[in-house]
Each structure stands twice: as C-alpha cells, then as structure tokens.
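Hello Y.,

Per our agreement to keep a running log of every chain we model this quarter, I'm adding this entry. I've kept the format consistent with earlier entries: sequence first, then predicted structure.
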Amino acid sequence: IVLLILTLISQTAFAATFTVDSFGDEADELLGDNICASALGTCTLRAAIEEANFHEASDIVDFEDGIVGTLFVTANIPSINKSLSIVGPGKNILSISGDKEHTPFSFFSENESNIFSISGLTIMNSVRAISFVNIDSDSTLEINDCVITNNYTPSDSAAGLRVSGDSTLTITNSEFSNNAADKSGGAIGIY
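Predicted structure for the entry above:
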C-alpha cells in the first residue's frame, strides 16, 4: 500500500516556478525536463514559457531581481496552452518589447478551463501585445497592473489585446495607450 501511495504522489503534478534570469531570447534546450535552461544555461522568457507548456500543473513565470529595463522578443513566443501566471516585477520596472515585429504573449485554450494571468509588466512595440483565443472552453485571462502601449497591427485588428471566442476577461489597474490597428479595435478587440 505504501508503494502505491508513493507512486501516486510521484505522478501528481506540482506547480513549478520558472524564474527568468536573462534578457536573451533563446529557446529551452531540453523541453519537458522541468528545468528552464537555454543552451547558454540561462532561463529566458521564451524558455520559461516553453518549459511551462510541457508541465502539467498551473505554473508561474517570474523574473529575477536584476531583470530591469526592456526585454526584446526576437520572434513570436509559442502559444501558452495551459494555466499560467506571468508575474512581472512592476510595470515601471520591466517592459517586454515585440521589437515592432512580434507577439510576446499568445494564450490558446481548446476544450479546457484554463486561467491565464499577466501582472506587473509593460508590453510594448509589438505587432499584437496579447492574443487570447478560446475554442469551446471557459477559460479566463486576467491582466493586472500592466501597461499595454505603442503596439501596432497592420492589416489586422486589435493591437493591444485581441480576444476570440467565449471567455472571461478581467483587467484591473492597467493602462492601454497609443495602440493602433489598420482595421479596428486599436487597444482591445473582442471577436
């Protein structure tokens, strides 16, 4: 009986925290090992999200104290497909930039109930700052204490935040400014 209990405990997924310690944008070297580490041995935002996507539990991505200023995303970060909290140090401390070409945060939920959250960040200079797509699910996106600014989407809509499908969206203590789209919904588009 003890062996059975230990086996069940070892198979249970526990929440992990992946702490970003680099301004780099390298991918995780070994996906699914529950260790955020690029080939350089650093934990980048990209590597943290990639590793979290392979982990069963609802995880947290946060940032080491020395990560202050602007972190540039050099390609779209893979869609986040499970419950995840991204916890920044403060909207006046750390900015995530899409370098006018990329989407830093994309959340996708199909046939699941996920809770996604972003807090304490400025997300700027992106083709679209945040994308939230729900298909046949009742997932939630929470944005708290963030600034979504200076994002531009040519030939599309919703440069700041695009929400598709039935979903729950909660925005608190956050600012959307100077977001523009060629079609509609410069700051927020709900479709």
